[in-house]
Structure formats: structure tokens, C-alpha cells
Amino acid sequence: MRRAELLSRILIIIGIILAVGAPLYFWKSTPIIHAQMADDGGWSPDVIQAEVGKPIRLKFTSDDVVHGFAVGQMDMQSMDILPGKVTDVTLNFDKPGIYTFFCTRWCGLNHWRMRGTIEVSGSPSDPEPISPPLYVSLDLDIDAPHDAPIIPSQTPFAIRGESLATQLPINIYPSPDYYLSHSPYQVFTDLSNTSLSESQRWDVVAYIWQSNTTKESLENGKQLYAQNCAACHGENGAGDGVFADDLAQAGEASMQSMSGAMDMMMQTPVDFTDPTRMLGASPALLQGKILRGGMGTGMPMWGSIFTEEQIWDLIAYLYSFQFEYEK
Ligand code: HEC
Ligand SMILES: [Cu+2]
Questions:
Q1: Which of 67, 156, 78, 144 lies closest to 112, judged by CA?
Q2: What is the CATH number of the domain that holds 65?
């Protein structure tokens, strides 16, 4: 065999190795992420590494039922993950940090525990200074009872409130901060130095709440609620979602097993149509509950999932179970 012939054979062999090996190598570098119900282990792996500016391709499959994938605080469409099929998505991060990815399909009572993290390294590595959420700067105890001692006898109506408000000699909303840090009941009390009757004061409160939101915000809140909250809190906010009974049963079980730690046990989901509860809660307090979660009560924490704006949209929507707004 001549030298040149030998060389070309060697080159062909190297070529074959590369053609077969390279895809195999890449296939190995992005292993398939398996999704399973939280009780069976959730995501594996559940920690993924990525780098700023380098697109990363993730492949998924489900080992049981249909799950979904989305990354919190990122503007992306959620993607379904079907059993026995491989689905892929390419992500690109422009900021370093720890991102939370989560399941977007209701796969069971512990669905919301199906979460994992993507650790994104790279520059700029100095995190932007983040101001603490409002409930922290206001130093609110979000676990303290906050029942409203007085509730309206009929649903407060924003349109009626508007015409009443224009006749008032006072400025009814000094600043957005006033709305965010006061419960409807507190605003109702602040209005007691006017000549209005109780039911008129509640109407003005409804008007103030309507003025602090927009139709877009309410619509967005409604969608987020249907996707993420309705399974526990109920389609119409009444605390009667499909998982409500399961939570109640888990609560009874935890009551029997750890009688000492009462405040850490599972509870039934809050009824947002209950005026005593909702009219006694300020937007800042609800923000705290949603960001932090209930710490063992069954209320998930959403801080790493939603943007600040999405959380205010959700809160605006929660109050719409109490007030009648302009259609
Ligand atoms: C897995 C069930 C579950 C899901 C899903 C859920 N919650 Fe809850 N939530 C609860 C339970 C249980 C409570 C009562 C215990 C507590 O307050 O910690 C609660 C309490 C709350 C409270 C406290 C109200 C108050 O007066 O203190 C707010 C606000 C709330 N949920 C908002 C939401 C929002 C918004 C979503 C969706 C983004 C959501 N929840 C999704 C179970 C759930
Ligand atoms: Cu799931």
C-alpha cells in the first residue's frame, strides 16, 4: 500500500469517528431531563448549569403524566412534556443568576413542588441592587390575623363610588403607596370623617380600588389565577378548588401527628370571596403571602416564579371578588 493511500484511509476513518462521535458527544452534554410527579422525585436532574449569552438546548421527557415546563420571571411560552416523547427548548439568558423552572400542568396535589433551578453564570456578575418587597419595608406581620371588623351589607359598587368621590372635599387617594399599604377596611375607616353613609363609604373604597388597577392588569391577573391558583382557591375564588379537600385531609393528618406546631400545618385554601378576610388585607399583605407562601400551610411561594408586575396583577384580580367594577 502506498503512503498516500494509507493516509487517505486513516482520514476516512477519522471522518467516520467524527461523524458518529460528535452527535453522541453533544447528546451526552445535554442529557434528557426526566419529569415525574413531585411525590416520585420531580425533575431529574433538577439543577442545570448555563452561561450568559450561550444558548442552551434542553431536552425533556415525562416518565408518567403530562407535565409542562416554563422558567419563572422569563417571558416564555410554557411547553408541554409528554410521556414517551422527547421535547426540546433552547434558552438564552442575558443575566446571570439563579432561575427557577417549574411545572405548568396540574399533575397532582404537590404539582407546585415540581421546581428546579438553572444556575446561570457569567457577567455582569454584580447583581443589580434589589429593593426589598413592600411588605418587608413596611415591616408587616403577614401571619397575624387581619379580619375586617365591619363588612358591607352589599357588594360595593365602584360606579356609585365615583360620583360620590367627586363630591367629597378631600383628596381620596393621596398616593399609590396609600392604596398599597392600606386595607379596604382601613380606607373605609379613614373616610369616616366625611358625611357619607357606611354603604356609600364602601362604594368609594371600591372606586379607589378600581382606580388603582386597569382592565389589562385585571385580565392578566385573571389568566394567571386560572393557571396557577384556581386548583386550590377555586375557579370563582371561593376556596373550593379541586385540591381543597386533599389539603383539608392533609391538614387533619398533620394535626394528629404534630399537635405542637399548629401554625405550620396544612390548611384549607383561603376563600377570596369572604369579605371579612379580604377587606382586612392590604395589597402589601397579599403581596407578602404570595411572594413568601404559607411556609408549610400548603400555600406555595411564588416569589421566584412571577415578576413584580404579575404579582400586582394577581392581587388586583383577587380584590375583584369583593367589588363590582365598571364592566
Ligand atoms: C396547592 C394549593 C394552593 C395553590 C396552588 C395556591 N394557594 Fe394560595 N393558599 C393556599 C392555602 C392552603 C392558603 C391558606 C394558608 C395560608 O394562608 O398560608 C392560601 C393562602 C393564600 C393567601 C393568603 C390570604 C390571606 O388573607 O392571608 C393568598 C393571598 C393566596 N393564597 C394567593 C394565592 C395565589 C395568588 C395563588 C396563585 C398564584 C395561590 N394562592 C395558589 C393554597 C394554595
Ligand atoms: Cu407536573
A1: 67
A2: 2.60.40.420
Cα 166 to Cα 141, 154, 173, 204, 314: the distances in Å are 35, 22, 12, 10, 28
Nearest to 323 by CA among 249, 227, 213: 213
Domain count, the chain: 2
Q: Which residues have CB under 6 Å of ligand 1?
A: 112, 228-229, 231-233, 243, 247, 267, 269-270, 277, 281, 286, 289-290, 294, 297-300, 302, 314
Final residue of a structural domain among 121, 155, 179:
121
Instruction: Tell me how far the alpha carbon of residue 272 lies from the centroid of ligand 1, in angstroms.
Output: 9
- Edge to edge, the sheet with strand 32-35 lists 43-44, 32-35, 56-62, 87-91
Residue nearest to atom 36 of ligand 1 (CA): 229
Backbone angles phi, psi at 82, to 5 degrees: -100, 145
Q: What is the mean pLDDT of residues 270-282?
A: 97
Question: Facing residues of 50 across strands?
Answer: 120
125-145: average pLDDT: 84
Residue type, 2: R
73 CA distance to ligand 2 middle (Å): 19
Is residue 158 a part of any domain in this protein?
yes
C-alpha 52 to ligand 2 mean position (Å): 27
Whether the Cβ atoms of residue 302 and residue 311 lie closer than 8 Å to each other: yes
pTM equals: 0.84
Q: Highest-confidence range of 13-22, 111-120, 280-289, by mean pLDDT?
A: 280-289
